[in-house]
Amino acid sequence: MRYTDVAIVGGGLAGSIAAAMLGRDGIAAILIDPHTVYPPELRCEKLGGEQLNLLRKTGLADATLRATTLDGEVWEARFGYVVARKPSDQHGVMYDTLVNTVRMQIPENVETIHAKTSEISSSAERQKLVLSNGEEISARLVVFANGLNVGLRQTLGIKRKVISACHSVTLGFNLEPVGRAAFDFPALTYWPKRASSRMAYLSIFPINGTMRANLMVYRDMTDPWLPAFKQAPERAMVAIMPGLENMMDAFRVSGPVKIRPADLCVTEGHIRPGMVLVGDAFSTSCPAAGTGTTKVFTDVERLCNVYIPQWLSTEGMGAEKIAAFYDDAEKKACEARCLAKAYHLRSLSTDNGLSWRAQRWARFILRLAQGTRLAIGRQFAGGSMPRRLAAKQAAHP
């Protein structure tokens, strides 16, 4: 039997950040995950905006961001027309690189055991874990950071409830120009023309010299459009986004097309003595809304910076202690924003009601106005769009 203060089940992004933060603060912790090196997986592929501020609160930002690629500027387009060129702080990174970079920051005082947790029993004092390699661990607190792996939690009566099945689908792939060295844009967000396309947007951004694409759509996994896309992705992209060729000229998809559906889920029966759920283990978010990492960073930062030090400073690990984390104002506000954004973006992208159509046009006009203002400022500063693309847009407005 090994004894520790905190046992972390799952070494993805949430679990690895928690292990690094607790180890840095001198808290006895053990990370349990079967992967010696985290494998490739289609999940978060860029960080930006408020996520950067949240990452800095974990104390892991500097080393983590060095493994990413900053785009610096993003072009926003619709109907094959660039409506805005904006400064951007988006940092592209493959998910496995992100997790493995965080893992490298876990201090030596945190032991990592490469196994699965097969059994767990809990009480208000200590929790017992039995691992697949036969080892046993006794911990004051168990942090569940094992994402969508619900089997172990179900044995404890913790239930997952799907509130929106296949809410969105992410398609991830690499793009490269044909007949030239690079695309004209440093990064591109392309918005759909019609709600009937059931598309949120196409995002193209750099990762280590490669242009990565994330296409966000709202379709059922039985939709024949998905296998058709995998078979002929270039043709499918041009069909769903009229005007895209005007932006990109000849291009090809290099490498495999990976597809990941995402359900929106919440957890019930989770307030238990001696155990806490973070990230996707507690609730999922919509990748199209871009809030998954925001939720993970918020959960782990609040848990490790605020609650675990408080909990360990007094005896016991009763359910009333655990409930304080779920009632945290910042966590609850983050959960509400992520859920609201997921539903709003889906309706904005697919609903053909008059109010939603008006909102889509209002967003387009706003972006066009912002882009025009930025373009005027850039002209005074001596910057301009590449001549070839400017000529094409003038010919095909």
UniProtKB/TrEMBL annotation:
InterPro entries registered for this protein in UniProt: FAD-bd, FAD/NAD-bd_sf, UbiH/COQ6_monooxygenase
A GO term for molecular function: FAD binding
Tree of life domain: Bacteria
Cross-referenced Gene3D superfamilies: FAD/NAD(P)-binding domain
Domain FAD-binding positions: 4-302
Pfam family, one: FAD_binding_3
Protein name, entry field: 2-polyprenyl-6-methoxyphenol hydroxylase
